[in-house]
Design a protein that fits this description.
The protein is an alpha/beta fold. The protein has 23 helices and ten strands. Strands 1, 2, 3, 5, 6, 7, 9 and 10 form an eight-stranded mixed β-sheet that branches. Helix 7 packs parallel to helix 9 and helix 9 runs antiparallel to helix 10. The longest helix is centred in the middle third of the chain and has 29 residues. The N terminus is likely disordered.
Length: about 575
């Protein structure tokens, strides 16, 4: 009886019908088909790809990239796919450029411990550490808190929860913060036999809890109308063991903004967690308009299909940055990041929220330094941030220039002053000019607003000032970048105010209302004057990365941003490209 071919098989058969030279040129397409099969397909597709000659150990994008086994471990729910790859000779010990193994990907992204079994059986080391000295248990405890059974299985396999990572945090400490193993027996390792017994009970409870949730979900969907449905979020919860000995601590770093917060709020999530705030609220700024997760967003699309496609969470760089950069990196992700679509993959609601995040300049830069994100989008960090990165944390920063930006100053629209010189702006913020009459305006005191230290706009002001030094802020700095517009627009309550921001944010992201932008040296801020460099205060916006983060997908993504398609999005959004 002739063999039945899948769609993959038909496509590969067509490849074999091509001339030898064409087949050689299509070898890359064959390999890409294997990667997709491992991430989104099933056993039939994977076997077909291997049968037609795809390399079971070839890393995508070259040395240091993800192997087929890693794609399957991170994205595929079917353990049979992992078994097929291992039987075909997949290297369970292979590592990425930053030291991750297939087991680490399964621990971070897996929804079930079943994906761990083939890897552990093949000899995967549960205590191997990546460049950040995180083990698979660190990743399961810190990033995969919705599936605690994954962490529990790793402990049964011999994972050491007391190994510290480079931030001196143990997996058990991270588990305590993220609630992954809250009050579970895993924290007590003194008696291995008792631990195993307690873990087995936990497994049974979790299975029972999952079955109850599925039953209630079916009832809500009308599949079982006889079932009494409680209100949402009131389903039965597993009550785990009490009286646990939680060990492992962390003292933080001197300039780490989260150290003091953690001391004040012991129950808060560590910044090691994947639950970094995905989309922070900003008064007066509707970030949902620019969210790639929002089907109704206003992000532009490319004129042609993207030349770069990243279809697995495990190879998508995690993005964060400044408020004024959020539309840009969200658009980049929308063009290159492909949500899972295969029948054997998990498609969680809000897929992009774990890879496209927004916090703010200060916290996002800290997350970059601590290796919790891959790219920080914003301005050049200030000197204290550089000191924290380069001296305290021994990180070498890499700056990829994406676009030019104008640093602008604004006043209330009723202020008759239309232009200031560079020297006048400096004298105002140095406290040397204190009345608008000294620059051609009314007899009214000048109130120069500032931002908080470490914010992108405040750091830009400091670099712009140079000498003379910046005056102390006249009022408490308790507002974001959009808050300055609100203060300056309140002309009656705050007469004589002046503020600063960036051209794109001022003209595209915030409702400027009763605020007007000032010309500087008689040159008004505009796209044309940014492009021809005639506006006198220009800065670069960067994609900032760590030099030792040499993930091939990350490097490809940076190249794409600077290429024609990346710059196409820059211009379509209203920024000024390179």
């Amino acid at each position: 009886m002739p063999r039945a071919h899948s769609l993959f098989g038909v496509l590969f058969a067509l490849l074999l019908c091509l001339p030898a030279q064409s087949r050689a040129s299509d070898a890359e397409a064959l390999q890409q088909a294997l990667y997709r099969a491992c991430a989104q397909g099933g056993p039939i597709e994977v076997r077909e790809a291997l049968a037609y000659g795809a390399d079971v150990n070839a890393p995508r994008f070259g040395p240091g990239g993800l192997t087929p086994l890693m794609f399957a471990a991170a994205e595929n729910e079917d353990p049979e796919v992992l078994k097929i790859l291992l039987e075909a000779g997949a290297d369970v010990h292979a590592r990425t450029a930053t030291g991750e193994t297939a087991l680490m990907f399964a621990a971070r992204y897996g929804s079930s411990p079943a994906a761990l079994e083939p890897l552990l059986a093949a000899g995967a080391d549960p205590n191997a550490q990546n460049i950040a000295q995180n083990t698979a248990l660190h990743l399961a405890a810190g990033w995969n808190d919705l599936h605690p059974a994954v962490a529990e299985r790793l402990v049964l396999a011999g994972a050491n929860g007391m190994l510290p990572n480079e931030n001196r945090r143990t997996a058990f400490f991270m588990a305590r913060l993220s609630n992954t193993l809250h009050k579970s027996a895993i924290f007590e390792q003194r008696d291995p036999a008792r631990l195993a017994e307690q873990l087995q009970r936990l497994y049974a409870k979790r299975l029972q809890e999952q079955a109850e949730r599925e039953r209630l979900a079916a009832a809500r969907a009308g599949k079982n109308p006889d079932t009494q449905v409680p209100p949402p979020d009131t389903h039965p919860q597993v009550q785990e063991e009490e009286n646990c000995d939680v060990t492992g601590d962390w003292t933080g770093y001197p300039n780490d903004p989260y150290t003091s917060k953690l001391a004040e709020e012991p129950g808060m999530l560590s910044k090691d967690m994947a639950s970094i705030e995905p989309l922070r609220e900003n008064a007066g700024i509707d970030l949902e308009r620019y969210s790639v997760d929002n089907p109704g967003n206003i992000l532009p699309s490319l004129d042609a299909p993207s030349t770069l496609s990243l279809f697995a969470r495990a190879e998508m760089p995690v993005l964060d940055g400044a408020l004024a950069s959020f539309p840009l990196y969200s658009a980049f992700a929308g063009a290159c990041y492909e949500p899972p679509s295969g029948s054997n993959t998990v498609t969680p609601e809000g897929f992009f929220q774990n890879v496209v995040t927004y916090n703010n300049t200060i916290e996002a830069f800290s997350y970059l330094v601590e290796r919790h994100i891959d790219i920080f989008f914003g301005l050049e960090p200030d000197e204290s941030q550089k000191q924290y990165a380069e001296q305290e944390r021994n990180r070498e920063l890499v700056y990829t220039t994406l676009r030019r930006e104008a640093f602008v100053f604004f006043v209330h629209k009723d202020n008759p002053v239309e232009s200031l010189t560079v020297e006048q702006v400096k004298d105002i913020y140095a406290g040397r000019i204190t009345n608008w009459k000294d620059v051609g305006g009314p007899d009214m005191p000048i109130l120069p607003f500032q931002r908080n230290a470490g914010s992108g706009s405040q750091s830009t002001l400091l670099r712009f000032m140079g000498e003379p030094p910046l005056m102390p802020p006249p009022i408490e700095l308790d507002y974001g970048m959009e808050g300055i517009f609100t203060k300056v627009a309140s002309y009656r309550s705050v007469p004589g105010a002046i503020g600063f921001s960036f051209y794109f944010f001022s003209t595209r992201m915030v409702d400027a209302g009763d605020v007007k932008l000032l010309a500087v040296n008689n040159v008004v801020p505009s796209k044309e004057h940014i492009r021809d460099n005639s506006y006198p205060i220009l800065v670069n916006r960067y994609a900032v990365t760590l030099k030792d983060n040499a993930k091939p997908a990350l490097l490809r993504f940076l190249e794409w941003m600077q290429g024609p398609q990346g710059q196409e999005l820059v211009e379509k959004l209203g920024y000024v490209g390179n």
